[in-house]
Each structure stands twice: as structure tokens, then as C-alpha cells.
Amino acid sequence: MQALLGLLTIEPMSGYDLGQMVRTSIGHIWSESYGQIYPSLKRLAADGLVSRKTETHKGRPDRHIYSITKKGREQLTNWLEVPPQAEVPRNEMLLKLFFGVQVPAEILIRNVERMAEEHRALLETFERVERDEIDQHPEYPDAPFWKMAARYGQIEMEAHLRWAEETLEELHKMAGKQQRSAQRPGQRSEQRQKEKHHAGK
Question: Can you give the CATH number for the domain in which 55 is found?
Fold first, then answer.
């Protein structure tokens, strides 16, 4: 709910507008679905943290526009002053890599390549947001802080991609050794059994 209060400091918005703003601005660092936004706005309004105004348009459904109240700004300020809680890390790909000795290196290569592809797309998104959206609105007092958040995302994705390059280099070496080992006499049947086992999963 604090994220919605923060977004409403930019300008009054409808629930739909807030959903669009989440998707195009903070969506990569904080997730809020439409299913969460509307109940949250209802609670914020009940607590006096936001006010609601209804706009009527002929031939179209009414629009409910929400604005942050003085009480809402005070709560947002209080929340911003509290140190953020440490996140509990959960990374399924790294966990699978940790137990990577149990599967052929080719499987791990596919996992890392997929991660690199996703993070490369995210890096391009952060760069586009900074270039095409933040830098185009220097008049907003929030713009320098938006740029800091976008820059964090860029540096994080660049680090992930650098790690992926190093990891893929090592995994390709392992895959080469496994392939050569599989061709040695007496080990071909064992390799075929492994391939059948993994193909049947």
C-alpha cells in the first residue's frame, strides 16, 4: 500500500492509471497487481490516507480518481524513515547450479543462457526507461531519484550478465570434458543410460 501512496504523490490517479504506472515505473522492483490495487485503495480511503473523487463522462463509465491526503503523506514519510527489511534470498537457478554435479553440464548451460537472455532484456528496459522516460521529464522533482533506481537495475543486470559469461565459459569446458569422457571405451553405455534417464524426466 505504501507504493500506491508514493505514486499518488506524483499526481492524482485512478486505479487503472496506478496499475499502468506500476507496470511502466516500479514494476521491476515492486509488484502490485490490479487485483491488489483496488482493495488497497479501498482500505487507504477508509483509513483517510487517500481521498476519492468521481468523474462522470457521458457514454463512458465513471472514473474514480484518488489523491493522497495530508494524513497519507505523513504515513508515507514515516514509512520512508524506517530502514528497509532485509530480503530473504530465493534463487532457484542458483540452487540448481549448486547441485549441478547431478546432471550433464548441457542442462546447466541452458538454464544460465535462459537467465542471461531474460536479464539482457531487463537491462535494455532499464536503459530505455532512463533514456526515453526519466530523461525526458527533468521538470519532475522525482526524476533524479527515479534515475537512481533505474541505474541500480542497470548495474545489477550488468553484473548478472558478466557472471553468466564467466559461468558459461566454465560450463562449456565441463561439457567438453563430459563429451570426451563419454566417447571412451567402456563408458558409452553409462552415458547412454544417463541420457535416457534425463530424457524420460
Answer: 1.10.10.10
Contact (CB, 8 A) for 50 and 40:
no
Q: How far apart are CA 1 and CA 161, in angstroms?
A: 33
DSSP helix/strand/coil, 135: coil
C-alpha 102/C-alpha 199 separation (Å) is 14
Instruction: Give CA–CA dist 35/40, Å, rounded.
Output: 9
What's the confidence (pLDDT) of residue 185? 58
Q: Are residues 99 and 190 in the same domain?
A: yes
Least confident stretch, 63-77, 103-117, 119-133: 119-133
Residue 87 lies in a domain: no
Q: State the Cα–Cα distance between residues 5 and 13, nearest whole angstrom.
A: 11
What is the Cα–Cα distance from 191 to 178, expressed in whole angstroms?
Answer: 9
Taking the CA atoms of residue 16, residue 17, residue 23 and residue 26 in that order, the dihedral angle to the nearest 10 degrees is: -130
Same domain? For 102 and 66 the reply is no
Q: How far apart are CA 16 and CA 8, in angstroms?
A: 13
Q: Which of 56-60, 65-69, 130-134, 139-143 has the highest mean pLDDT?
A: 65-69
Average pLDDT over residues 173-194: 73
Question: Phi and psi at residue 33, in whole multiples of 5°?
Answer: -90, 165
